[in-house]
Structure formats: C-alpha cells, structure tokens
Amino acid sequence: MTDTKAAFTLDDTFTAAEAAALVDRLRATFRTDRTRPLAWRRQQLTRLRDLLTDNRAAIADALYADLRKNRAEVDAMEIGTTITEIDDYLEHLEEWTAPQPAPVTVPGVPGSTARTQFDPLGVALVISAWNYPINLLLVPVAGALAAGNSVVIKPAEYAAHTSALLAELLPAYLDTDATTVVEGGAAETTVLLELHFDHIFYTGNGTVGRIVMTAAAKNLTPVALELGGKSPVFVDRDTDIATVAQRLAQTKFANAGQTCVAPDYVLTDPDTAAELQAALAVAIKGLFGEDPQSSDAYGRIINERHFDRLSALLGSGRTVTGGQTDRADTYVAPTVLADVRPDEPVMREEIFGPILPILTVADLDEAIAFINDRDKPLALYAFTENDTKRRLAAETSSGGLNFGLPMHHLAVPTLPFGGVGESGMGNYHGRYSIETFSHRKAVLDVPLSRNVH
Ligand code: NAD
User: Fold this and answer.
1) Would you indicate the residue range of the signal peptide (predicted)?
2) What phi and psi values does residue 355 have, to the nearest 5 degrees?
3) Which residues touch 263 (CB under 8 Å, ≥6 apart)?
4) Mean pLDDT of the 134-143 span
5) What are the φ/ψ torsions at residue 172 (nearest 5 degrees)?
6) Fewest CB within 10 angstroms: 112, 161, 244, 321, which?
7) Ligand 1 atom 14 nearest Cα
8) Cβ-count burial 370-399 (b if 16+ within 10 Å, e if not)
9) Which residues are designated catalytic?
10) Between β-strands 325-326 and 232-235, what pairing exists: parallel, antiparallel or unpaired?
11) Hey, which residues does 118 pair with through a beta bridge?
12) Which of 10, 77, 130, 136 to mutate to test the pocket of ligand 1 (most atoms within 8 A of CB)?
C-alpha cells in the first residue's frame, strides 16, 4: 500500500500527487472489503464516540477560541448531537443496513426472490463548514463509516483551532488506512476535487456548492449539498407573543446567529409586529443580560470579513434593540430591525448572523406569496395554532417545516435533514445518512429449475 499521511495539516504541502496517493490508499483499503463488515463499522463508530467523550475539554477550548461558544452549547449542539447520531447507528446498524425483501409481483419470473441491498459506495469526501465544525463534520463522517465507506475528511479552515484539533485526534482514533484528514481551504479542496470520489458530501454556501457539483459531474460522482438560505418565520395573530419571542430569540441568537437553519426574518401583521418587537427586547435581555458582550452565553462572529458583511446589513430598517458592534472583538449585538422593506440589503442575502428583521404582511396569503416568490429555504417556521399549519405545509416548499420551535427538527434523527432547490439536495441523519452513502442495489434471483416465459 502507498505510504501517505493519515492527516495533512496546514504545515504540509498538499500536492496533486499526494492527494491522488491518499485516495488510492483509501480505495485500496475499500477494495480489500475491510470496511464492509458491520463489526468494523461498529468499531469505527465507537472510536469516534470515544474521541468525543475523551476530549470534551479540548473540544470546548477549541470552539471557544474559534467562536466563543460556551460550554453548554458545545455539550448540547456539537458533542451531544453527534453522540446521539452515533448511538443511533450503533443501535440500528443491522436493521438499517439489512437487505430489504421486495415482493415479486410481475408474471414471468416464477419462484423468484427480490431484494434491495445497501452497497457502500467506496471513497467518500466530506467537506464541512465552520459554524458547527464538530457536528457538521463528524455527523456525515459517522454516516459514511456506518454505510461502510472509506472517507477523506476536510474540516472547515475558518474554525482553525477545531480543524487543527481534529487533524490531531481523528488519526489517533480511526482506522488510518480507511480515513484521512486534509486540513485547508479553497486551494486544498480544489486539489481534492480533481480526483475521483464515489460520493461528495458538501456543507456550505451555494457558490461553492456549484463548484463542487461541477467537479463531481466530471466523474458522475453523486453529491449531497447541504446549503443555506433565508429561512422565514411566520407569526400568526393571536399567538402567545412572549413565548414566541422567547423561542425566536433562543434559536436566532444561538451561536450569534451563525446557524444554517437560524430564523432569518419574520413575517407578521403590523399589530403583531409591534407586540413582537417589544417582547423580543425583553427575551434578549433575559437570555444575555443588559450587556450581551459581557455574557458568557453569547458568541462572536467567526472573522472580520463576516463582521464587516454583517455591519453593513445593520443599516436596513429601524433598529428596535441591539445594533452595537465591536470589530476588535468581532462582536455584533443581538439585533432586531423593524419596518424593513423587502428590497433592503438585509433581505438580499442570507444573514447568517445575529440580526433579525421583521417585515409586515397583510395576511397569510401575502406571507405565502412572499415565501414562494423567493428561493426555496432550508427551513420554514411558523408560530400558529390553526389551519395556517395545513396551508403552509400544502402551499410552500422548503427543506424542513417546523411549527413552534425553530431549528429543533434537525435534532430529531428520525427525520431527514437537507434542503431543496437553492438550499441544497440530498439529506442525512440517522437511516437517511446510510441511504445517502450507499447504493441501493436491486437484486433479483430467478431459480434455474423453473420455466420462465
Ligand atoms: P466555509 O467558508 O467553511 O466553506 C465550506 C467549505 O467549503 C469549507 O470546507 C471550505 O474549505 C470549502 N471551500 C471554500 N471555498 C472553496 C472553493 N473555492 N472550492 C472548494 N471548496 C471550497 O463555509 P460557508 O460557505 O461560509 O458556510 C456558510 C454557508 O453554509 C451558509 O449559507 C449556511 O447556511 C450554510 N450551511 C449549511 C448547513 C446545512 O447543514 N445545510 C450547515 C452549515 C452551514
């Protein structure tokens, strides 16, 4: 087997020849059938789980350095969610990978049996984003391993401390003949994308998503693109506004708004908008105190480029609460903007930060038209208790639809997670990850002893 590294860090040169050698090595391992047995998959999943539980403190330190994530958020949304996924695979691996018998209902093949068999694809490439740099990397990696693949693991370079830690830890825990970490950014990923993979799983923005899909097309490689977009929130009349504001603030401002499924903007009628503005100011104070910059519970913007981008969006509408910034600390206060018009800068791109615009609509019809006039979002949220639920489900398209508590649909591993249209393609979590990283092979077995017509 070719001698290549188990991890390429930023100190290494990463040439096309080295990249090709590492993929060859992983493919050679795959061809030995080492990754196929469920015992190997279980062992790898267990080791990945061990990595998380053995290194909780180091992971929390890295995430604090990258994003000032607080310990509770790291435990719940990075380590906890990833362990839940791994435990799910460990519990259901046999069931989810078992061949599925199919009834043979057509004439002409008497006595036949048929089944769908889940075949691992080969060498998968997993490219992750920086905002949840543990979860967004290791959940798909766990899915790829559970499905019996070799994996090239590309952490997100902006979360530099977490990336370096993973480059050190992953080779110490996983089978290095079947997995390799490649640290780096666009340059290193471009080198990787020249190669033939059997699956590419990409999380990030749509511009790079197109680059990934174009590269994959050369080899007819299947892709999953987990992208973003502006996820709207519809707030109905006559809802309990204090509860709505509390749940909105809690989800919108987690990780300083840098969450792919964060509520992006609110649509509601003018009376409810006025009530909601006041209630959000109270909810934000309850979560982060008078000065969120000194609160341990509040994060920071990943870098100055994103800080500058967000600062420019603060000019839209009228600031109801927040609006303060500190570039040296990459701090943007939890901010609510009212009276925002649809043509203002904050409504022209995914916000991906702690700014919540409120727009007014006359009624549900206008809200549905507003949503359908724009790209299909990764998530659609609504706070309502009536027929509005049925209408939103029937009359709009989005990656996920969630009533009552934004973002939490992605923490339910029995649901597929993914986008549609501009928010992405393909999905994962739980058994859906096994399907994504497998080929569903049709197997028909016709006995030789029977006459066929
Ligand atoms: P990012 O900058 O970390 O980029 C993502 C990955 O793309 C990185 O690993 C990076 O190295 C790689 N990359 C960057 N430029 C490249 C190039 N030219 N060629 C090849 N690879 C390249 O993350 P981002 O794009 O800023 O992430 C934010 C976006 O991702 C938002 O739109 C957000 O909604 C979306 N997102 C989606 C999900 C999801 O699960 N659907 C999760 C997180 C983030």
Assistant:
1) none
2) -125, 125
3) 231, 232, 233, 248, 251, 252, 356, 381, 406, 407
4) 98
5) -75, -20
6) 112
7) 186
8) bbeeebbbbbbbbbbeeebeebbeeebebb
9) 226
10) unpaired
11) 440
12) 130
Residue with tokens 């003018």: 270
ipTM given for this complex: 0.96
Is 203 close to ligand 1, i.e. is its CB under 6 Å away? yes
For 412, the 3-state DSSP assignment is: coil
Band the pLDDT of 1: cuts 50, 70, 90. Answer: very low
Per residue in 310-336, pLDDT (tens digit) is 999 999 999 999 999 999 999 999 999
- CA angle 214–302–281, rounded 5-degree value: 115
Task: Give Cα separations from 242 to 36, 280, 290, 395 (angstroms).
Answer: 52, 8, 18, 28
Report in angstroms the alpha-carbon separations of 53 from 7, 61, 78, 89.
Answer: 21, 14, 12, 17
Which amino acid makes up residue 389?
K
pLDDT at 2 over 60: no
Q: How far is the CA of 225 from the centre of ligand 1 (A)?
A: 10
The C-alpha angle with vertex 173 and arms to 166 and 49, in degrees rounded to 5, equals: 85
From the number of C-beta atoms within 10 Å of its C-beta (0-12, 13-18, 19+), residue 34 rates as middle
Confirm whether pTM is higher than 0.90: yes
The amino acid sitting at 127 is I
Is 141 buried (19+), middle (13-18) or exposed (0-12) by CB count in 10 A?
buried
Nearest Cα residue to 375 out of 403, 347, 336 = 347
Residue 135 beta carbon below 6 angstroms from any ligand 1 atom: no
